Amino acid sequence: MAYIGKQPVVGNFQVCDAISVVNGQAAYTMQVGSANVEPENANHMLVSLNGVLQKPGSSFTISGATITFASNLATGDVIDFIILLGDTLNIGSPSDDAVTTAKIADGAVTSAKLSSGKILQVVNTHYTDKASSTSDTPADVSGFSADITPSSASNKVLVMVTVSFGGAAASYPFILCQREISGGATTSLALGTSASGNQVNTFLSRYIQTANDQGTSSKNFLDTPNTTSAITYQIQLASPYGTSYINRQSNSGNYDYIQFPSSTITLMEVAG
Q: Which domain range does residue 231 map to?
């Protein structure tokens, strides 16, 4: 903010140094700690002369660091005190519990003001549809993704995925979790590192022994995307042997033991 003239100083209730009266003199310099002080205006002062409070503007005026009384003071007059009552733009330090939620402007508390590890936002996708695969090449599961935009590049994203698998007997479904940064790179997250040859590093996997088998697998991963761009975390499904499913068994007959569960992906932005 720009000011014409002297910029107001925030805070600072002060008592001026003692001033000795000079016979026949009306103007005196105000100091605090031997340094000149310049009040906002005369109305922001308490001035006592000979035990009587003086009226601003008529009994005294100020200009810069100089106070001038309406008439010359004489030997025996006493300037009891000059108190500066703070500054026009200062409200001081609020009392405990004085600032309510309603007094804080929307968006005023940024992630930079929050300590590391605080959860800043939560995004969740509850996937209730069914998906299948007969390919060993992972492919996007339509609708099984979640989007988040970090508020700071130093923040992390906690990715939590729970998948309900089913499939043909002796099938080996697995999923990948792809981080897709808007306008940037796509990265496969949290893969194992031990695969070699025809083996596969995965994010989550399951062995389905029979057509009636169904099981849930979960994984949490703290991602470091280093961006403030929009991010999509996309689930992909693959099935190297036989047909595999998400949210259903291979056996889909009309029996009371046939179940159709759901799967989820949850993202939490964590302050860095």
A: 115-249+260-270
